[in-house]
Design brief:
alpha+beta; 8 helices
Length: 329
Amino acid sequence: MSRYRLQPSRAQEQALLEHCGHARFVWNLAVEQHAHWRPGRSRAPGFAEQCRQLTQARAENEWLRAGSVIVQQQALKDFAQAMANFFGTTHRRPTFRRRGRGEGFRIVAVKSGDVRRLSRNVGEVRIPKVGWVRLRWSRAVPAGVKAFRITRDRAGRWQVAFAVIPEPTPAPGTGGVVGVDRGVAVSAALSTGQLLNAPGLRDSEKARLLRLLRKLARARRGSRRRDRVKAAIAQLKTREVDLVVLESPAFRRAEDVKIRTSRRLTIDEMDSQPGGGAELSRRQSRKYQRVSENGSGRKNSEPSITWTPSCSTGDGLLSNSASSTTDAT
């Protein structure tokens, strides 16, 4: 997805929060319905039945009817997809959502005129029941947008992600392969012997973060002071993530080599190494070679780390997947 920063006004931000509240309410109702299901009972309602129940609920509740039906129906659609992923053993079972965590909603049936450019760095997107909301035009919006998702992070920043399948980035063609091992003290260790470190917060910011965590431990739950401290901590955390993604030289190797998979190291193997796994035994070296050749490993092993090129900049990104993918963000 192509993600852009939204710049809503105060009134628009309040309307966006109401959309998030409606989507969260509908999602939690769907979770509650499926939580009551037990073996031997009738089948839990599916997406079509829940949409009919939503229509009845909107007719009986004025506050729910005042919201966007697209936002509420897509919340049910997301829940149906989450349940399908759960039964497909690829994800965990959906749980209740809390206010302030993972806020967002999805809009479908987007027309070509719903996204427009105003100036070099400013654009607008039309959101139902909200109107035109400005966004930072950091790059061109892909053509053929049919849906987008609005999200709000812990620091209070609003973003819009347009659902478009990106064009694959061509491989460098050098045929080079390198293994990547992620760690704690060292961000990434390459099989060539190179050690890459992701940038982090400055010493002053780390000290401020420590002070804020101490304040958070002393703050009373539900107080405004606790909310302010949590917001300040979230801003530092998001800044740390931005530094890793945007400024790290550890994510700029995709232009030089073409990487498939890396070593799958289990927790038992890490504990068996006195030096934290720096030196591999012959048995582990053979296992690493087999995994690198066929891209597969034991079922209960840790997920492999792949290095994939970014479609927008050509830089490499670390991800927890078993095969190479592209990221347009």
